[in-house]
Amino acid sequence: MALSIRMMPAVVLLLGLAPGLAAAGGDSFLAASRAGLAGSSEEDFRAAMGSVMGCGSKAASTRLSAVEHALQPMWRVLPKNSKGLVEWRMVRYLAHRYFTQQSSLLVRGFEPMRQVNASDLGSAEILSAKGSSVIDSALESKRSSDGFSLEDATAMIATLEELIFNAETTLLEAAYAKERKPTKGGLSHSELSRVMEVYMVHWMIGDDQQAIRLLLANRTLLQQVLPKWNDVKGFVEGVVKGMEFTAQRSPKLGRAQAALGRYSFDDAHDAVGDITRTFASFWENECQLIKESLVAIDKRGTGRVSLKDFYGANADGEWRFGESEAYLRELGALDESSPWLGKQVIIPNYLQGASNCIVSTKHYLVCCVHECEAVLNEVEDAVGAPVAAPEQILPLVGNMTNFDDEPPKIDDALRTQLLRIAETHGGNVPLHGRLFAQWLHYVFPRECPFPHKAGVHKAVSPQQYGQGYIASDTEVKTHSAKRNESAPMLAEHEEAQWMSQWSEEEELHADYALQLRAPWESRSPFMLGGAAVVALIVMVMKAGAGSAKKPDAYNFGGAFDSKSHFV
User: How many distinct helices (H) and strands (E) make up the chain?
Assistant: First the structure.
């Protein structure tokens, strides 16, 4: 929870959850994997993944169809090889975006900032929780093949969904035990509601059993620690009533008792799955309150607030903004690139930071809605390809609006940046690379996070970070006191300094060999589009101008200075 922790007893500060995989789901997956991967064919891979879904069942088929339908728009624009397949890096990118869009889940192992290499495949940690060698063999087998198809990606993502669902069994059993209810018997509506409330305390607080016992025994303390507890109870009650309505309208096979007001463990488990899928949408209002508080002190409209104002708000009573400077740096939420503006908290990076994820489990986090996904989806839908020319992107993005229904301000510097990205890649901009994500951040600075280079920062929860994730009173006072200092003269530097964090280093999520050409393979300047011709003319004029040098933020370096590598 976003630093109501500053007000909690120390015993309640740890966020985290370590549910075990359900024996049936995990073991059936491993058994099928061992039996079916000898041939390492595409059919074997899907069979191993599909075993968790209950291969051949109507429910499994329906779920696979739903997942594939959700993936189709993104799959259409991914860079593929000559056989229409994609690399593993693009599969994990696709899976991350799927879970982000569907449930605001950050699946551990699929973090975008994670460095993927020969020693770390960057696979979902839940896949290897009960047998890393088997799972790694399955993935390595497919990675070594020609690539992954849409059906492969669908099977893997549906498997992950089922494993996450199965992993919640242990926690639900704990809630039943706390209420002294047998998992084999049926529950009334009131009994089920009570079990679900206990489940929510376990799910939201984490694995600190002493804290859970205290909270369940003291409802006054519970409402102090979780100020929105009554709203959470209302949300859970709504999920239970929705399940009841569905049971009465369309009873499941073997669940006849649900239609009569008696609910089995399987019914409760279904409700738990609904909670995981929909809780982020319910909690989003809290995320927007955090954003509104930050936007109110974003004095320059750059999607950044000075660290002194961030802590100043905390000193003035805004309890949310209490993360330490070191922890903000670890999360990638701190911009320290400008000597003129000083240290700044990046609004979208902070919102997406692990400290603002309301639930943190062993296998996933439930985070705030990723607002930039809507922006990228709109670009992908309009372009319909993995790459696009700047003259296609500029009017498209220019006609969009941010979440406050305001049009973006694409100035000359941003136009130049986009042209330079295209120039680096032989005339087109890859939509699934770090440089384009960086450009979107500066166009939509409050919605799109700044994309740091892979391996530099980590999605570390407060519990994982340990002591020191909360700013001390001295740290808060020291920074907030600087609000009274006179600001430096920024008139000639401010416009340049707001983009001081810009980096020329590209990182592509896949091999774009079929979609891009190297800069030296580009056509003659006279064959390029009008925008590129203008850019080349401008560069020639700048080269001859000598002393007429732009401020640093405009000096992006030569077209071939950019480093480019895969992540």
Answer: 24, 10
